[in-house]
Design brief:
By secondary structure, the protein is α+β, with helices and mostly antiparallel strands. The chain has helices spanning about 10-35, 40-70, and strands spanning about 1-5, 10, 80-90, 105-115, 120-125, 130-135. The protein is built from 2 helices and 6 strands.
Amino acid sequence: MLTNKKGLTMNQNSLTKLSKVILTTLSIAFTTSLFSPTLGQLSEELNNNIVNENIEVVSQAALQDFSQRTGIEISNPDIDILIDYQEWSNSCLELKEAGEECFDIITPGWRVVVDKAEERFVYHTNNNGSIVKLKKFN
């Protein structure tokens, strides 16, 4: 029997069990902290998911316009698409149309190039693909 300063009595067996419980708890806490994602990691993963979702929406919007203009089916395997993140210098995605009011504000978005043989279409979009503007085609 062991007696501490406060008069609590514990036998060796109880002390061993208590030590095991404490060590197990510490081990679980340490392991959890090693393998649990941090808030920054969760935020980065969420951001990556949003970006991937936006790329899909943006590419579909550009392909839809391309298909309507050319009559080429979206499912055509010969269509190439290139998407680059952009920060446009104005709210018109640097493609002001007649009568459109533009604001000098950095606007995140995408530059989308759709190619099929000799036809190349270049689009400017906003970040979520709700605005898609054709820059040029040849």
